[in-house]
Amino acid sequence: MLTENQIASSEMLAGSTELRRQVRMAVSTAPVIDIHTHLFPPEFDSLFLHGIDDLLNYHYLVAEFFRSTNLSHAAFWKLSKTERADRVWRLMFIENTPLSEAACGIVSILQAFDLDPKSPDLAEARAFFNSRDLHEHFDRVLSMASVSDVVMTNDPFNEREMNLWNSGKSLDPRFHAALRLDRLVNEWPDAIDTAALSALQLDPNLCGSSISRLRRFLDDWIERTAPLYMGLSLPPEFSFPAENFRDRLLREVVLPAARDHGLSLALMMGVRRGVNPALKAAGDSLGRADITALERMCAANPEVRFLATVLSRENQHELCVAARKFNNLMPFGCWWFVNNPSIVSEITRERLEMLGPSFIPQHSDAVVLEHLISKWGQSRRVIADALGERYESLLQAGYTVSEGEIVRDVNRMFAENFRDWVGLNAR
Ligand code: RAT
Ligand code: ZN
């Protein structure tokens, strides 16, 4: 981080070409804290996804694959992972041009490793990824993407993952946990029968000591994983307050745990799960969320810090306005269906205009390690353009910025806002 003296002594940028160049440089090299991913470190064994077969099985590509094939969903899922990857490659990269953002991302990953994006098959790419030492490869990818820290999504209801936590594996210090509470909050009372909760003898109506037992369950997982925040995704119809189990679980279990442990709560709003179950993970969709529910949560819980991202393009402006009203609300990222350059550009410009540097522009949502390269590469280009535009407006208004000030602003958005929000420095 630059000192105040360094910022003050760095040269003022009075020309627009040089200004743009400096912004691109600062944004493309800034170490970023990736605040929401689905990545795991190599020591998490089969949960650590990497390489060409995992990349081509990514659900963003799978959804698009079915746009261009007559193969049935059932027949596709009967294939092995490598066979599915071969099919996706042939259809989307050989027989068609990889125009979509997800497909273009694969091209940029191959390119980054000098692999042929027009190869007739995957032999070369497989040989390359298989030959890599996992730990070295992992370090290399983080450095290529300039990612300093990775926040995982840790589901206490995922048995495979939780067995790993229980086995006491030590974690690479660049990885941080985030406790994901979807199953608990959105699937009550079905959650009672999961392996995670079945021993707790919980009452489906949350009577008796169920609430305090659930609180202890959360306390235990908070102690075990030391999460930076708790998070959950919410359907468009989420309302607050409400007369339902979700509301009680939030009010009586999750929010008190957030308060007591000083943990932020990340709300990911507007997802409709399983719209086409035949597509499995690719079958989710979106809907416009009610941002007034988020505002009421922020108003009713001033001592809790909320992170929020919204899936529908139509909600983005409302989220900016909500953040102007509540300084316990931090908008973050351009999530999933809005993580496309055209929409990231629009959202980032809107946020800069309405919130200045007081938001977190992006997270990767990477599922496979090498996604960090494609997703951050593309996001950084778009964010640099949006930010360059703002500095140019300042220049036209009569305010020159220096290289040091640009680096300070980028660093704030790419790392410091999150660090401060979740108290990462104080840990
Ligand atoms: O964006 C995605 O890749 C989704 O499939 C989900 O993982 C989503 O980000 C989530 O965290 O629920
Ligand atoms: Zn995600």
How would you describe what is shown here?
This protein is an alpha/beta fold and 427 residues long. Helices cover 50% and strands 9% of the residues. It contains 18 helices and 12 strands. Strands 5-6-7-10-11 form a 5-stranded parallel sheet. Strands 2-3-4 form a 3-stranded parallel sheet. Strands 1-12 form a two-stranded antiparallel sheet. Helix 10 links the parallel strand 3 and strand 4 (175-176). The model has no long low-confidence stretch (mean pLDDT 96). Bound molecules: D-arabinaric acid and zinc ion. The site of D-arabinaric acid has 6 residues, from loops.
| DSSP strand count | 12
Strand content bin = 5-15%
Kindly report the spatial arrangement of strands forming the biggest sheet.
5-6-7-10-11
Which residues sit in consecutive blocks of at least 5 with pLDDT less than 50? none
Q: Could you tell me how far the N terminus lies from the C terminus, measured between alpha carbons in angstroms?
A: 19 Å
Summary of the model, kept short:
With 427 residues, the protein is of the alpha/beta class. The protein has helices spanning 4-9, 16-29, 51-56, 59-65, 73-78, 81-94, 101-112, 123-131, 134-145, 159-166, 182-186, 210-225, 245-261, 291-300, 316-325, 341-355, 371-397, 403-422; strands spanning 12-13, 32-34, 147-151, 175-176, 179-180, 229-234, 264-269, 271-272, 285-286, 306-310, 329-331, 401-402. Bound molecules: D-arabinaric acid and zinc ion.
